[in-house]
């Protein structure tokens, strides 16, 4: 009644005096009943003031909000009721005080008393109605408070926050998308709440934001949210990880090359997901799309960009040390990953805008992440394959820049050849083949520095067929545009591959043939055999040299991939083929039986016979006889069809028959002996092969010895190598005998 009288008299001083008395002497009194009375009085003042209450809102609201913290739940309820009446009367006039009201309500939302909570919900709905109706809401002033409150761990407070975000998002005049980077991290944290209801509400809110992003990509601040997604893509909670990964997929597809500066962080998050099992199938599928989409963003122009210009177009481009934490930090857990991701934060530009500013590819950071994943033995097979695909793609698209990292990548690529998966080895070989054949490897300063590699410069190499032609089914994304040449890394690769076979005999036994056959498809088979033979010629471990030669010979004689090379060696018509034969022969001498088989392949039957004559001076072991047995089996295979047909021309191929009889005499009475003996019994009588006019039989099978080959020197080389092997065997036997004596003693 007093307030109405003062309003009618326009006596503002008395109105303020009454409100002050109600506040100071009652609402803020030490006595609980006085506080209740003060709250009722303040609400009555607001009702009496009506539309003029807006002039006194600060004085009315502050004491009520203070009572929100009262220990007495009934007092908190009275305060909630009083504020409801004040707000209901003032309506839009309370918006300038929205932050303090929101702050007080967020506390009441988590109140343990159900009556207080119920009252706060009524007040909350009223305030939401007012905000929805008004076009004067101060979003800029509200965001800092929202950003602070969104990190609350209380379920009711989280529910309260999400409900307000959904309301603000639904108001057409309020563009909450501009401030999404401020609250996105908090939203993802709420998404991991234990309450299904809150998770669902948060999922809906994030879904609405993503719809807005798809509608208006040009206004989205992708830069400020990229690292937030990187962090949550590595969350242990499946829902958070899946949602963040879906957002990342949309970001890459919508923002395009704008996401390239964040590639290292994205790969850190995405690559491990590719090895998930069916329990996380959805995450795996989305991660795969992210990986493929990101890979397509790397283009050949990234290899040609002038780095000085890039520094002018994009401010504060961090160095690789600033962009990523060290490999130890990356593998240590989420904390290191978070630091690595946050360090990538920088200004970013949307490609559809009028200012088309160049985006820098942080290749150093990408390579560091890929290298770390290759070194991590715990990662799954699909992740390793994806890493190798990335390396291959980068060598195709940005070879010049990638060769700066080749020396550091080369050892781990070689170690990956020992992987358990054939698919991983195949992809690894594709990367190594690209390194060995890319013209970028010829650039000065990029080649290997090992002095031992330089010794192979004399090896004559030929231009191979293009890798893309050999595997037409390869995806366009992975096809190499490189010109088919061998660079200095080719020799380094061959040397280190043989070293790996020497140190890991199991790898040679189980995967050696597979690796060499695939390399013959990816590179030039003649170059591979030529270089390996030249390296083995200098091999000090004679036992390994013999084993390796046997492996190479088996591949040469049996692999369909080497059909062309076999035909080239069969005739020795060209200087190149003769040069290759001599090179192979010198190394093949490490294994007597393989040397004979090489002579059979090249139709050097007289020399084969001369070699077999020397076998009488060699130490005939079980392994030796086993190899002769295998050679007899090979003679019966389709590869040596031409040799068996030449047995019909007895007069022109006497040394072929002598050589085969020589093998027969070496063999004990075994299955191979019976097989070869039966074959030789089928050789026709020369008298019966005479034609009707008495002329000589057709010389179609006749083949003269290849010119320009010194077979005497080759035979001497064979004897020299075999003497070395004999001496080495005696030394090994002597050491074994000494060891036995020590054991006895």
From TrEMBL:
Gene3D superfamilies: Leucine-rich Repeat Variant. GO terms for biological process: phosphatidylinositol biosynthetic process. Residues 314-328 have a biased composition (Low complexity). Residues 505-683 form the Vacuolar protein 14 C-terminal Fig4-binding domain. InterPro entries: ARM-like (IPR011989), ARM-type_fold (IPR016024), Vac14 (IPR026825), VAC14_Fig4p-bd (IPR021841). GO terms for cellular component: endosome membrane; PAS complex. The keyword Repeat applies. Residues 314-334 are annotated as: Disordered. It is found in: Endosome membrane; Microsome membrane. Keywords: Endoplasmic reticulum, Endosome, Membrane, Microsome, Repeat. The keyword Electron transport does not apply. Pfam families: Vac14_Fab1_bd, Vac14_Fig4_bd. SUPFAM superfamilies: ARM repeat (SSF48371). Coiled coil: none annotated. Belongs to the VAC14 family. Scaffold protein component of the PI(3,5)P2 regulatory complex which regulates both the synthesis and turnover of phosphatidylinositol 3,5-bisphosphate (PtdIns(3,5)P2). Pentamerizes into a star-shaped structure and nucleates the assembly of the complex. The pentamer binds a single copy each of PIKFYVE and FIG4 and coordinates both PIKfyve kinase activity and FIG4 phosphatase activity, being required to maintain normal levels of phosphatidylinositol 3-phosphate (PtdIns(3)P) and phosphatidylinositol 5-phosphate (PtdIns(5)P). PANTHER family: PROTEIN VAC14 HOMOLOG, TAX1 BINDING PROTEIN-RELATED. Forms pentamers. Component of the PI(3,5)P2 regulatory complex/PAS complex, at least composed of PIKFYVE, FIG4 and VAC14. VAC14 nucleates the assembly of the complex and serves as a scaffold by pentamerizing into a star-shaped structure, which can bind a single copy each of PIKFYVE and FIG4 and coordinates their activities. Interacts with NOS1. This is Protein VAC14 homolog. It comes from Heliornis fulica (sungrebe). The gene is Vac14.
């Amino acid at each position: 009644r007093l307030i109405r009288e003062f309003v009618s008299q326009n006596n503002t001083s008395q109105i303020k005096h009454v409100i002050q008395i109600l506040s100071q002497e009652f609402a803020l009194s030490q006595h609980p009943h006085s506080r209740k009375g003060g709250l009722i009085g303040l609400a009555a003042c607001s009702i009496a003031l009506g539309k003029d209450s807006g002039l006194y809102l600060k004085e009315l609201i502050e004491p009520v909000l203070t009572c929100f913290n009262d220990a007495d739940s009934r007092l908190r309820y009275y305060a909630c009721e009083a504020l409801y009446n004040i707000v209901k009367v003032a309506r839009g006039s309370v918006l300038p005080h929205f932050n303090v009201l929101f702050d007080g309500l967020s506390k009441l939302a988590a109140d343990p008393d159900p009556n207080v909570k119920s009252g706060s919900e009524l007040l909350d709905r009223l305030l939401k109605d007012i905000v929805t109706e008004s076009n004067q809401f101060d979003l800029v002033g509200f965001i800092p408070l929202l950003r602070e409150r969104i990190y609350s761990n209380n379920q009711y407070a989280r529910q309260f926050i999400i409900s307000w975000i959904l309301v603000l998002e639904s108001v057409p005049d309020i563009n909450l998308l501009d401030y999404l980077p401020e609250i996105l991290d908090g939203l993802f944290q709420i998404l991991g709440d234990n309450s299904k209801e809150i998770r669902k509400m948060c999922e809906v809110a994030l879904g609405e934001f993503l719809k807005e992003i798809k509608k208006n990509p040009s206004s989205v601040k992708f830069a400020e949210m990229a690292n937030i997604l990187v962090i949550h893509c590595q969350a242990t909670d499946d829902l958070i990880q899946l949602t963040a990964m879906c957002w990342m997929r949309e970001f890459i597809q919508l923002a395009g090359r704008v996401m390239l500066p964040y590639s290292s962080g994205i790969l850190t998050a995405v690559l491990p997901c590719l090895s998930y099992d069916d329990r996380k199938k959805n995450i795996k599928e989305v991660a795969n799309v992210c990986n493929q989409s990101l890979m397509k963003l790397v283009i050949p122009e990234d290899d040609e960009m002038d780095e000085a210009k890039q520094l002018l177009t994009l401010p504060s481009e961090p160095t690789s040390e600033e962009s990523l934490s060290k490999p130890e930090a990356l593998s240590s857990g989420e904390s290191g990953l978070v630091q690595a991701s946050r360090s990538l934060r920088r200004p970013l530009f949307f490609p559809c805008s009028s200012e088309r500013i160049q985006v820098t590819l942080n290749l150093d950071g990408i390579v560091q992440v890929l290298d770390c994943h290759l070194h991590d033995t715990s990662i799954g097979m699909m992740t390793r394959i994806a890493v190798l695909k990335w390396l291959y793609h980068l060598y195709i698209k940005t070879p010049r820049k990638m060769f700066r990292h080749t020396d550091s990548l080369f050892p781990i690529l070689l170690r990956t050849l020992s992987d358990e998966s054939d698919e991983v080895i195949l992809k690894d070989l594709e990367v190594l083949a690209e390194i060995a054949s890319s013209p970028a490897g010829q650039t000065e300063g990029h080649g290997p520095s090992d002095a031992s590699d330089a010794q192979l410069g004399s090896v004559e190499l030929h231009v191979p067929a293009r890798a893309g032609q050999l595997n037409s089914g390869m995806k366009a994304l992975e096809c190499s545009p490189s010109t088919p040449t061998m660079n200095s890394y080719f020799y380094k690769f061959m040397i280190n591959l043989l070293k790996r076979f020497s140190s890991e005999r199991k790898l040679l036994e189980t995967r050696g043939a597979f690796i060499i056959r695939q390399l013959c498809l990816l590179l030039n088979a003649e170059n591979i055999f030529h270089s390996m033979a030249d390296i083995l010629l200098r091999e000090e471990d004679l036992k390994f040299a013999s084993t390796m030669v046997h492996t190479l010979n088996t591949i040469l004689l049996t692999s369909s991939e080497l059909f062309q090379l076999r035909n080239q060696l069969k005739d020795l018509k060209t200087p190149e083929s003769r040069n290759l034969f001599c090179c192979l022969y010198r190394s093949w001498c490490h294994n007597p039986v393989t040397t004979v088989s090489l002579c059979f392949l090249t139709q050097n039957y007289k020399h084969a016979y001369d070699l077999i004559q020397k076998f009488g001076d060699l130490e005939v072991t079980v392994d030796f006889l086993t190899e002769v047995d295998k050679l007899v089996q090979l003679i019966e295979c389709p590869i040596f069809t031409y040799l068996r047909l030449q047995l019909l021309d007895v007069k022109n191929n006497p040394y072929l028959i002598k050589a085969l009889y020589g093998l027969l005499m070496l063999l004990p009475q075994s299955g191979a002996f019976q097989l070869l003996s039966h074959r030789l019994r089928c050789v026709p009588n020369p008298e019966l092969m005479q034609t009707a006019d008495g002329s000589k039989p057709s010389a179609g099978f006749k083949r003269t010895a290849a010119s320009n080959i010194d077979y005497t020197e080759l035979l001497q080389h064979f004897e020299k190598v075999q003497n070395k092997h004999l001496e080495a065997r005696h030394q090994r036997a002597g050491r074994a005998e000494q060891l036995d004596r020590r054991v006895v003693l």
